[in-house]
């Protein structure tokens, strides 16, 4: 089956339960609603013409400021650096049920094909989707990582606990509203002879590059003149 043929097979297999979304050339991305996740994932694995038997990666995504600003700060505007900003998204803000998503990258070893599956969490305050561990065992640690860094809950996961941050860590560091300097700092106290947690002492700074200088190459009097004359004038 050719590449275009198996891609055209997707609407036939899934109907309205999964839909193709825009992605880079030669990449196939489909999106499904959270209640249909397990059914879609099972079909992707078991359908004889699809056969996506390997889960290569699974990650969380926070779309809190997606399309609104390149970065958000309190002491500097991002308007001069907001390349690709969707002005409509700025006015509407983050839609309910469209903040957190789980993106799964699948591989069919038999057919040498790759596919990306995305599902949004319906609740922005308590994001949750079904665990894929029962379909692809390799999802286990990836889901723990997404839970740790984004706070996404995976219903039915056999051992959902943090995997990268420390015991007792508060918050989820990959969320867009998590402060870049963190909330606490850790150090070893030689007097207490143990590790202590203290409020962060770093002052927040906004490192926005703004270089303003005069360059005679862009002098209006030199624009349009031959390069040799412009260099001589400079």
Write a compact overview of the structure shown.
With 234 residues, this protein is of the alpha/beta class. The protein has five helices and nine strands.
Note down, in words, how this protein is organized:
The chain is of the alpha/beta class and 234 residues long. Helix content is 20%, strand content 22%. The chain is built from 5 helices and 9 strands; from the N terminus they run αββαβαβββαβββα. A 5-stranded mixed beta sheet has the order 1-2-5-4-3. A two-stranded parallel sheet has the order 6-7. The longest helix has 12 residues, at 3-14. The relative contact order is 0.12.
Number of helices in the DSSP assignment: 5
Structural class: alpha/beta
Characterize the largest beta sheet: strand count, sense, and whether it forms a barrel: 5 strands, mixed
Strand fraction band?
15-25%
Helix and strand arrangement:
Elements: H1 3-14, E1 18-20, E2 29-32, H2 37-46, E3 54-62, H3 87-92, E4 100-108, E5 113-120, E6 128-130, H4 139-150, E7 153-155, E8 184-189, E9 194-199, H5 227-233
Parallel strand pairs: 2-5, 6-7
Antiparallel strand pairs: 1-2, 3-4, 4-5, 8-9
Question: Can you give keywords for this protein?
Answer:
234 residues, alpha/beta, five-stranded mixed sheet, two-stranded parallel ribbon
């Amino acid at each position: 089956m050719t590449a275009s043929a198996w891609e055209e097979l997707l609407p036939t297999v899934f109907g309205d339960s999964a839909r193709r979304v825009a992605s880079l050339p030669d990449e196939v991305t489909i999106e499904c609603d959270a209640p249909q996740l397990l059914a879609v994932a099972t079909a992707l694995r078991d359908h004889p013409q699809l056969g996506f038997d390997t889960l290569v990666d699974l990650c969380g995504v926070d779309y809190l400021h997606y399309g609104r600003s390149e970065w958000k700060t309190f002491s500097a505007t991002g308007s001069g650096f907001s390349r690709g900003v969707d002005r409509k998204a700025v006015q509407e803000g983050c839609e309910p049920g469209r903040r957190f998503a789980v993106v799964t990258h699948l591989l069919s070893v038999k057919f040498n094909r790759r596919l990306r599956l995305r599902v949004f969490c319906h609740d922005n305050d308590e994001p949750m989707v079904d665990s894929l561990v029962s379909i692809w065992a390799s999802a286990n640690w990836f889901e723990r990582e997404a839970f740790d860094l984004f706070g996404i809950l995976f219903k039915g996961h056999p051992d959902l606990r943090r995997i990268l941050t420390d015991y007792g860590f508060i918050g989820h560091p990959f969320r867009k509203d998590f402060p870049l300097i963190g909330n606490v700092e850790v150090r070893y106290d030689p007097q207490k002879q143990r590790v202590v947690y203290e409020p962060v002492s770093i002052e927040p700074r906004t490192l926005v590059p703004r270089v303003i200088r005069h360059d005679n190459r862009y002098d209006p009097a030199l624009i349009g003149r031959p390069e040799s004359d412009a260099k001589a004038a400079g």
